[in-house]
Design goal:
It is a single chain. By secondary structure, the chain is an alpha/beta fold. Helix content is 42%, strand content 18%. Strands 2-1-3-4-5 form a five-stranded parallel β-sheet, with helices on both faces. Helix 1 packs across helix 5.
């Protein structure tokens, strides 16, 4: 793996959501390197050569959903220490407990506006990583 830099991986099967995340991250901090993965398998392949500061993972994806990917990440000693955030439109109380018990750093509800999304990411990157944005 490469040395840990300022890389963030975003995993989402929806191309529009990946584009929105890219635009939000450009506004949050253009110095952060964003790598996009279209599904859990794609993310696992990228993790063979990248050492990101964190992953943001969409909850609802075909093939491998966010919980399945989180389970694989936290079960692999080489990947278990990478903070992973579940990013979704909604979580039930049972899903919230499951996400936390599987080792997610946190879960974030996708906001409906660009500014809210920007503030959500900025706040969490500052809170969890001390990044000055």
């Amino acid at each position: 793996m490469t040395s840990k830099g300022k890389t963030i991986i975003y995993v989402d099967d929806d191309e529009d959501d990946r584009d929105i995340f890219r635009e939000v991250m450009r506004d949050v901090n253009p110095k952060l390197d964003l790598v996009l993965a279209k599904d859990g398998q794609d993310a696992l392949q990228k993790l063979q050569v990248l050492d990101p500061i964190c992953l943001f993972i969409d909850m609802n994806m075909p093939k491998m959903n966010g919980l399945q990917l989180l389970t694989i990440l936290k079960g692999d000693p080489a990947l278990a220490t990478i903070p992973a955030f579940i990013l979704t439109t909604a979580l039930t109380p049972a899903q919230t407990l499951e996400v936390k018990s599987l080792g997610a750093q946190d879960y974030l509800i996708k906001p409906s506006s660009f500014e809210e999304f920007k503030n959500l990411l900025k706040t969490n990157l500052q809170k969890h990583f001390g990044l000055v944005l």
